[in-house]
Amino acid sequence: MKISETVVAESHSITEVCRKIGVLTGGYAWRKVKGELSNYDTSHFVINGQLPKYSRIKKLCPVCDGEFVTSEGSPREQITCSRSCSNTQFRSGKNHPNWKHGRSAERARRDRTVMVDHCEICGTAERLCYDHDHKTGEYRGTLCSNCNTAIGLMKDTPDRLVSAAKYVLERK
Predict the structure, then answer these.
(1) Contact (CB, 8 A) for 32 and 1
(2) CA-to-CA distance for 69 and 52, rounded, in angstroms?
(3) For the CA atoms of the chain, what is the radius of gyration?
(4) Cα(67)–Cα(38) distance, rounded to whole angstroms?
(5) Which end of the chain is more exposed for a tag (fewer CB within 10 A), N or C?
């Protein structure tokens, strides 16, 4: 199947390209032509009686340096050329979902092994969790779910915690 730049430039749709190169306009052949057209500028094609909403641009893949075409400004605008490159780009280093506050997944696992077997505030051994500073991400200790929630509701502010303790002691 030979598609030339002039055929694409003179056509206004994928179906018109198929007709000009003598390919049936349905099914597998149409999809194959559509795939081949990704290498050409089709920004002038009319889709459903309207010009496309987003302009087509060529980009370089940050992983493999390959060139690919995508829709500029579209919510589905591609960053990489393929799913494989996307997995490489977004699953390594700072782009990894477990990378938080400068900590890799490996370091997070290592920090969790430091957890003790009881809450460091109330001493219970039920529903333990990993407490961390929300600004820096640093591990602070092991707390039960209730104590961790209480600290979080007090916005990790020592003054609020002391005031709350005084309040409870005064009204006992």
Answers:
(1) yes
(2) 14
(3) 29
(4) 11
(5) C
Backbone region of residue 156 per phi and psi (left: phi > 0; alpha: psi in -120 to 50; beta: other values): left
Query: Which parts of 45-87 are beta strand (E)?
Result: 56-60, 67-71
Residue 33, classed as helix, strand or coil, is helix
Name the pLDDT band for 166 (thresholds 50, 70, 90).
very high
Q: How far apart are CA 24 and CA 30, in angstroms?
A: 7
The pairing of beta strand 128-132 with beta strand 67-71: unpaired
Q: How confident is the model at residue 164 (pLDDT cuts 50, 70, 90)?
A: very high
Q: Containing H/E element for 149?
A: helix 145-153
Q: pLDDT of 85-126, one tens digit each?
A: 887 777 765 555 555 455 555 555 555 566 678 899 999 988
pLDDT at 137: 74
